[in-house]
Specification:
alpha+beta; 4 helices; elongated; Cyclophilin; 2 domains; about 280 residues
Length: about 280
């Protein structure tokens, strides 16, 4: 059993989310930084989809009821540690990035809903953990092999690759180049649903009246004010704003970890390059 002795300001349980339920209107949800989730689990011998703690904003403290092997992973953290029964672990405040992840050998034993143990607060699936909450540790997995993770995203660069979006043709070539050349900053009005971006200038949003259509995580929507919004883990499954681009899956962790005010630059790539990048980071 794990007891939350002092909960961070934001603390939830997440895994890889609801990967096959978007047709029913369910967001993918799950961890904001998929690489950190997979890496933390690999460091303690868990499968990639084992549930972990995701925390942000402040530090905290947990206590374990039995010996436990844990791993902390994030932009500025990658460490494993064994905690003896009754021992405590301080969770640091994220500094270099926005989220940190704590994996425990055996995973976190909470009920799965529709195939996921993730927390999706808008639908009240799971809840934000608070001081005094207790979480069971799962049994060790039958195949437990610790791995040193590779393919770490270049978090520090703030450079994020994008492919052309489904409405790219509604934007002029000059506007596409402006989108790529401007230094954007993550707005404080950003959350797990979407990151709003700001720059010294805004994009010229198309005036076309578009019907709502399917949208994916990473879609870069341009609302009438010309300030792009990138759909994140809890983002909606449909949207009507024109999508100038889509952040490639391999670079979503980089964007997810950018704190409010942090700069972001976009680089255009092809679908083939995006697929190669995903294969590399998945290795």
């Amino acid at each position: 059993m794990i007891t939350i002795e002092r909960a961070p300001a934001y603390l939830t349980i997440q895994d890889q989310g609801w990967q096959a339920s978007r047709s029913a209107g369910m967001p993918v949800s799950g961890t904001m930084d998929r690489w950190a989730l997979t890496a933390a689990n690999a460091m303690v011998g868990n499968p990639p989809d084992a549930a972990v703690f995701e925390w942000a904003l402040t530090g905290g403290r947990i206590r374990v009821g039995r010996d436990a092997r844990v791993a902390i992973c994030g932009p500025d953290a990658s460490a494993t540690q064994t905690i003896v029964a009754g021992g405590e672990l301080d969770l640091p405040r994220p500094t270099a990035g926005r989220f940190l992840y704590l994996a425990v050998a055996g995973g976190l034993d909470v009920p799965a809903v529709l195939g996921s143990r993730s927390t999706y607060l808008p639908a009240r699936l799971g809840h934000a953990l608070k001081t005094g909450d207790q979480i069971r540790i799962g049994q060790s997995f039958s195949v437990s092999r610790t791995v040193v993770p590779a393919g770490r995203p270049n978090y520090e660069s703030g450079v994020v690759r994008v492919v052309a979006g489904p409405q790219r043709a509604l934007f002029s070539d000059a506007e596409w180049q402006r989108f790529l050349s401007l230094e954007w900053k993550v707005s404080s009005a950003s959350d797990r649903m979407g990151y709003r971006l700001e720059a010294e200038a805004s994009l010229a949003a198309p005036t076309a009246d578009l019907p709502s259509e399917a949208a994916c995580v990473g879609a870069v929507q341009v609302p009438p004010d010309g300030k792009p919004i990138v759909l994140m883990a809890d983002g909606p499954t449909v949207g009507g704003y024109p999508k100038i681009g889509v952040v490639i899956s391999a670079d979503l962790p980089i964007l997810a970890q950018r704190q409010p005010g942090a700069p972001v630059r976009f680089v255009g790539v092809s679908i083939t390059e995006a697929q190669a990048a995903l294969r590399q980071i998945s290795a």
